[in-house]
DNA sequence: TAGCGTGACATACCGACGGTATGTGAATGT
DNA sequence: ACATTCACATACCGTCGGTATGTCACGCTA
């Protein structure tokens, strides 16, 4: 079975640590989770954690990196299913809003990320993971004249910020408690009436419509 | 001089505590500032702090409330200098981007706020302070047909998020260190006279231009 | 294959921090 | 005047992030 080689053990420990930390950070936020809880869930001790990461923030950085990679992958996959640059952009935005429905994305990537690592480092990581693709897509549309000539950076940050906030708003808890403490998954949805978690199912569509209108308006 | 009445002492202590906490939180972030440092700067002890606030987060809440009030006041003041609803909106947005040049606004209101109090409470406070005015302005423009008919909430959050991110991006440190550690108070109490800095003077103009274009595009 | 260096942890411990319980003296109502 | 309450100060506690040190298995070399 699993060969107990050094490299394998190392990788295994790191993976478990990141996975459990991700689960706990997403559930109760960075500040409310202690290292003791993390290492207990991972079945190791603090010694192991500090052997592989430089402290709590370092572990969080690894978690954030993983989350960002996954979001970026989902967005890229959605974009690549289209050929027209404009379609690629809108599809990517749609995929981002959809990916944000994951509570892990909201809490780790959008709420705790900037506060724990500082805004500039968070921005740099987001840039490397996904904002770069957004900027490239926009630049392409500017170059071929699809949207009005302008610098990409301001536009990129405006759109990026708009979508980040939209993700958090879309995930807001409904009138009833959405996840009082743990986003646990009981087999029975509260209201079997409606399909699934969009508390306000029209919000996603309306938000995407407004976003599309904003993008559309940039056409020259 | 100061009448040493109970109410006066109370108010004085609270004000000093909030002021010093605001300065320290803005300078090094919520997590890096201890209560001991705050109460020492305010010239009181932890007993006083816990007598007036319910813990560190409670003090931060009071600080955030103050910062949000000030930003909202500046935005409102800028908006009220115009009569045309459209001008009021754009002027308000411009004032918000300018108000964000204050490092206290960036760190306290935009970075630590959501992480410390949780996104939903932060959102509720922002809603009460300023986002409500944005929503009302947009609703007015929708009602009189200036911009396309649509729900206000998605639009409000998209614009709010866009501007929040824009503020942080505009304040990014230049190639040289902007504020090595302490952006601590120069002798000039608040605004030197110009909002301040821009490391990249064209960024603010370009961002405002892009934002205006986005708004303009919503016209029906 | 015996030995040995190194990597991958576990254990024990420390200082600091957020929070609480209790004491105290001045201001205030009666 | 006296009692009460308020606005703190003091002393203390549990927990947490971080560190120093110990230990044992793996893997390379001779």
TrEMBL record, chains A, B:
Residues 175-204 have a biased composition (Basic and acidic residues). Residues 11-71 form the HTH tetR-type domain. InterPro entries: Homeodomain-like_sf, HTH_TetR, Rv0078-like_C. Keywords: DNA-binding, Transcription, Transcription regulation. Residues 171-204 are annotated as: Disordered. GO terms for molecular function: DNA binding. PANTHER family: HTH-TYPE TRANSCRIPTIONAL REGULATOR YJDC, TRANSCRIPTIONAL REGULATORY PROTEIN. This is TetR family transcriptional regulator.
